[in-house]
Write the structure tokens for this entry.
Amino acid sequence: MFAVVEGPIDVAALISAAQRPDCGAISTFVGTTRIDESGGASVEYLEYEAYRPMADRKLEEIGAEIKERWDVREVSIVHRIGRVEPGEASVAIVVASPRRGPAFEASRAAIERIKKIVPIWKREVWSDGYVWVGSQVGTREPADLP
Amino acid sequence: MDGIKVLLFGAAADRAGTRETVLSAGEITLDELWPLLAERYPGLSPMRDTLAFAVNGEYVRGEARVAPGDEVAVLPPVSGG
């Protein structure tokens, strides 16, 4: 399953869907929103936006890339957009492989590729303004920018 | 309106103050399209070197050609995950 979704990600369902008798390993990576603090302020929530359907297609491409490089039998990548509260999942990657090595490596590669090629953007909403991560454009004072 | 549709995302939408516009032009390259966009939204100019572009949903370089009916996306550095 490759999808950009607007609500909570059901990680347990993705793991269940990856279970199969020819695989001895399922590696799961879940990216969650973290509260950063700087300049006496803190992040209140994150907001993601995507260029669809290009983002959906890039997730599929990443799935194809890792299947080509590792012996991976199942891959799901789901990215959430919209407002995501602290501690909630913004992205989940589930990879099933006969062996743990390829499962770990493929899952790591998938998140690194997401951060490079999938047209999704994160805005940190702080108690004193906001910042578009990556561009460092926003309403916080430059001195406060991380 | 017959023209080149331009979508803006993230910080680029923020700087331009809009998420979508249409530019009147014939068939031109993206490098030629940029000044038209920057003239309409001067706030975008400082971001120029950080931006990537997609045409009809696929990454392209500045020399790529676009024509009326195409969809150009202005993409700041991605920050998913």
In short: Chain A has one domain: 2-144. The mean pLDDT of chain A is 95.
